[in-house]
Structures are given as structure tokens and as C-alpha cells.
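Submission sheet (multi-component)
Chains listed below:
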Amino acid sequence: MATPDNLKYTKEHEWISITDGIATIGITDHAQSELGEIVYVEIETVGEEIEKDEVFGTVEAVKTTSDLFMPLSGKVLEFNPDLDESEGDNPGLINEDPYGEGWIIKVEISNEDEIAELLSAEDYENLIS
Amino acid sequence: MEIVLKKTALYDKHVAMGAKMVSFAGYDMPVRYTTLIEEHMCVRESVGVFDVSHMGEFYVSGDGALGLLQRISSNDVSKLEINGAMYSCMPNHTGGIIDDLIIYRLADAEYMLVVNASNIEKDWEWINSHNTMGAIMADHSEQMSLLAVQGPKAAALLSKLTDVDLSAIEYYHFEKGRIAGIDDVIISATGYTGSGGFELYVDNKDAAKLWDAIFSVESDIEVLPAGLGARDTLRLEMGYCLYGNDIDDTTSPIEAGLSWITKFTHDFVNADGLKEQKEKGPLRRLVGFIMEEKGIPRSGYEVLDADNNVIGKVTSGTQSPMLGKGVGLAYVDVPHHKNGTPIKIQIRKKTLPATIARPPFVQLTKL
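Outcome: structure written.
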């Protein structure tokens, strides 16, 4: 199971990549493997300001539904159009490439102090092992 | 508190084949080996093999056996012939169901009851508490393994391992015979997938040998191990009830659409109550439904009518791999239960349209 060193993580099995105050957020390889085939991603919070730990969307696998939690407070700027059922409609990208084409949302970070609370790759590996 | 999960005799096989294991009814069971959809489609098109050894098996025999079974069973066991199997349920005194089960008649006065793993203790106590007939009871659950070999090509595959004429075994019948060099295997033309095939009851000590033999058959028939994930989506496409989801201690067989196994030709626990309910008509019914828009129904979601009044609750739901749509089972208040009725399912903040549809949701051609 891959856990790239250059990303940050949460105990809710999300990864975060930060560039110029913008966080790109997805779910980890471990998370997609646990969920199985993802058939639907519901994100209806684009444009909203959401607090850390609040739900920003939902991932539906054949077997289960899993809520997605904000790893950092901020404004949801974008939902990956390749996953969106009204555009690319290919939620399986999360299974195929969880850290790349399967990214889920981009967020404008409102409180940079929260970044320090995220987990390193090593911390996350320890959590799931 | 750490709960120690039980392992079936095939546990090491599952781990070696890369299964993702989950806790289910006190057992560490395979939920999938590759992907749920691949396993699901393999059962629909070819053959999938499930380890369902967690299921319980009780033997009931002796002069009092039929009398005891007639008392606890909603279906009429006097109609069951030797080498026949019968789906039934055990009603409780308060309008609910203790468990659903399959009853096999092994000999003139010998029966095998196959019950849900999560209910083994409850069922054992319940049946014993009604045994005023002196029937001999034995719990073989810990000694028996059960392999469900399911799919349209199951007979073709298994015929390489046995001289028993599998094509001659009618649905809900069985033969006891030699398969893969193992004697006295109960080869039953039953299953929980709707795709045909067999369930093989075998002693624990022979389970690994049978499992290996099935996966070593030299043929061009595709066969995959399949987990509980595919088992659930397969049964839901057929609209089969799952105890604990769609039926339980509070749901009656009449409500659950199990009138066909509730025969008032004999006296059983709560027969009068169920007969009255059947005559008056139940206030709610278990129905199948198909989503009209993208969204997956799940157990516990509310069912709404056109005016957004709550009329029921989803008991099982999934994305049907065959249809590519959400399907589910739900209890809805009468008269909203009729086939074709437009309903809505409350999925988080959305109310999505669905239509009541009589299962099976997937039409399979019989071979």
C-alpha cells in the first residue's frame, strides 16, 4: 500500500498536498482499498466555507458509504470534474490512482496554523499498520 | 475487550488467496478476494465458490422429529420428501421471526436444519424449548463446512469431480455422494445467488481437499473464489431476504412476503396470529425498489411518498452490478406497496426518485 512521503495525511484516511495556500485533497490508497469499487462521489459543497472536521462530501462504494471530512478549514474551490457524474463520471479513478487523477477537491486554506496538526507519511503508516 | 473471531476450516486458503477478511457473525470471513464486481459477474456468467461454513447445521431425528419441526416451522414439513430441501422460517409468539432456514430431509426420520450463523445459539435454545416430542437434536455447526459453488457452469465444473449425475438433481433437492474423492458429501441444488449451482456440505477435515479440488479442475470454465460482498449483492439482485436486515424478531413472514412458506395446513408457533394478519392484510409490506436516479440506498434510509411523507424504511440496498443502478428492499406502509408505485428515498440531504419493483431485479436465463 503506497503512502507517498511528500503528502500530509489525516486519521480519516485523507491525503493533502499543499501548494501556495491551496490544498488538494483525496483519500489514501489504504482507504480506497478498504472501500472497494467506488461508484459515486457526491460533493455539493463547492463554494462553501467549511470548518476542519466537518463533512464535505460522500464516497459511495458498492458495499458502503463513507463520509469525507475536511482536513483543514477553508473554502471548497473545485470538485475533480473527472469524478463528477455530470462531467467525467469516472469515480473509479480514486481506485486506480488515488494520489493522482483520483484527487477529490481543492480547498483555499483559511487557517494555516492547522497544517501543523496533519500527519506525516510515517505517522499515517503507523496508524494503519 | 478483545473478541476472538472463529475461523472456518478454509481460513488459511482465504488468506493464501489474498482475501480481505472481515468480522461476520463471530467469524473471520472473506469479504472479497479480487473485486466485488468481478466476483459478482463471475457467479452470474460462470462459477464462483463461497465458503459459508459459518452457517449452522442442526440434526433433528427420531420419532419426534417431524412433530417438533411442524411446531417450529412455518412451512409444512410433512410435505418434504427424502432428498428434498425446503425453505422455511421459525415464527416467534409476537409476530416476528426467530430465523429463516433450510430444512433437509436426510432419511425417513432424520432432518438437517441450516440456520444463520448469527442465530445459532438463539435457534438452538428456541428449538430445544419446543422439544416436548423427544426428538434427538445434535448441533453439527462446528464440524461441518459448507461450500456454495454457484453459477450457470457449476454443474459442468463439478461434474469433473464426481460420478453423481448433477444435472438430475432438481432445484431444492440433494444427493449424498462422492465428490473429489470424499464420501457422503451432501450435494444440494440450492443457493443464495439466483444463478444456480450447488451447496456442498462436507466434514471440516475434508473441506480444504474439496476447495483445492474445485480450483484444480482442468477445464476452460472460469472459476473464482467469491466473498461475502458478492454474496450480498447477488442475493439483493434476486430480492432474497437477509436475516437481521430484511427480517428479524419484529417482522412477520406475512409482511416480509414469505406467505409462500407460511402454510396454515399445520399448527405451528403463532399460526393463529399470522393467519389473522394474512386475512386482514398486513399494515406494511417488504417490497423491492429500483432507483431512478444515481444514488445508492442503504439500510435505515427513509422511504417517502410523492408528498414527502415518510412511508417506510430501507432494510437492504446496494448498487446492482448487473443493472448499474441502486436497488433495495424496504418496508413500506400499505397501500404504497404496489408494484410500479413511484416513491422517493431520502439519501442524506437529497430525496431521490425510485419505483417499487417486484424482485428479482435481474432476469436470468435458465440453462
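Remark: The radius of gyration of chain A is 13 Å.
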